[in-house]
Amino acid sequence: MPDQFSDRETVLEVAFPGRPREFVPVTDSPFLIGRGSETGNHLQLDDRRISRRCAAIVTLETGYKLQDLGHRQGIFVNGEKVDRRDLRDGDVINFGLEDGCEITFHTPRTSAPASGTSTTRRTATIESMLTRLGSIPSIAAVMPASGLSKLNLLLEATSLLHSQLPLDSVLGTMLDHAISITNADRGLLLEPDAGGNLKLRLARGSKGDNLPTDTISPSQTALRQAIDRQAGVITGDLNLAALDLKSAESIVVQNLRSIVAIPLYAMPRANSDESIVLSRGQLLGALYLDSRRPAAFSDIDRQILDALGVEAASILDNARLVEQERERQRLEQELTIARDIQQALLPRGLNDFPHLAVTGVQYPCHEVGGDYFDVFPLSDDRTAFLIADVSGKGLGAALLTTMLQGALSGMTLGTDPVRVFNHINKFLCEHSSVGRCATVFFAILDRDGTLDFISAGHPSPLLLRRGQVSDLYTEGSLPVGLLAQAEFTATRVKLEPDDTLLLFSDGIIEAEDPGRELFGFDRLHQILSGWQDESLESVRTIVFDSVNAFSRGAAQSDDMTLLVVRYRMPG
Questions:
Q1: 334 falls within a domain
Q2: Are 311 and 386 found together in one domain?
Q3: E strands of 3-158, at which residues?
């Protein structure tokens, strides 16, 4: 680390080939990285190959997290492509570019967010609040003893906000302190429901007692004004307030004389579409206090209330983030289970049969995929193999994939394949709420080379014969689950010894390069043309190496599945 930066700063070491290294402190959250300044980048990289909105580093209580904001080539940490990643000291970030820049992440050894003690965090928070209120000597010079007492209450509340006590206990104590600062009759904490309407979460009385939330009616006029202004409404005597506030029905009915309504906002951060950043974060709720007595609020009182609102928003925001993280972990755990089940259902250790050799592989673009392949014997002389691609991605596609696999594996019982396909098609169409269809190629290969196959909207397999490449069929067909009136039929062809069939999903031919050009059928034909007497593994390797070289690290949006089958005359 260079001398001009403190060992308590988090710094990015930026290195371009042939240029002096730069050291840039991470001063904001989110800290934006990209080309140019038009999108508010904090670190502006002079490289036309880098996206204007490239990446962000977000400061969390647990540490620092790097987020890909849509860079075309992807974001890499220590050579591994990531969508989001917790950063550690010494991590090297690059953008998938030859001769591009590298960024080394340097974090403090002693005071990183992830390792700070609760005392350190509390002290930092108090220092931040005092900065907002002004310097301590100047406060002491103008603040009466009662004001210092209120400041002490604020500091106590702040200390509790960052304690390990249950959340409702912390928030209840925070309300008690707010009531003491304002001499209010009651204090309320409101949170938005699913429809965005503020609903009571906690209500406390002036004696520290819990009040029944179903019988309390805060002034909606005051709350609405606070949210519209995005600032607190603090009125010591409602008789002197604006007409719309003092004449509000709830205020008149309850004979209220003083009101405090402070909206609580999350800290600004990247929103759901990964774009940056609103001037204020999400509305988390409101702090509301009222009394039937007039109150006198000094400037210091108002600043203390504002500071307390910021701290209350902080604890609510942290609680919300913790809940989101728990939900994310739960979903990841469920997806991991689904992925393990799906992978376990794929054929393992594909064995050659007396009349064919086979190899296959699947690369889902998400945790779980909508592609699958299978190979299973129907008798000693006949072997079935298939490849399928369910519309859509993710867990829904994976569920339908598993259903299809179970239905098609029933052919081992001797069921006519055409009847099975027509039944699956009608079943999916009758349950149109499923909203998905699937392309399938299914075939049965006899030991004498007879191949009976059914095409259901899937791209034609390629036939490799003596160095020549051709499509197995050229006629179109419908996927299963798309049209109830569709009727599927079987077609028969004869294979010659050493004929090789290459079955693939759309993810192969629709792979994109950084310029969004598709890999395409023609390119797949070209790379296989002239290849003969090669092992099946080498054919598989040729295809995926060519796709990877073409895509040059661009993120893909579809699963990639390949099944290679070679007919051989039984010895």
A1: no
A2: no
A3: 11-15, 22-25, 31-34, 43-44, 55-60, 63-68, 75-77, 80-82, 84-87, 92-94, 102-106
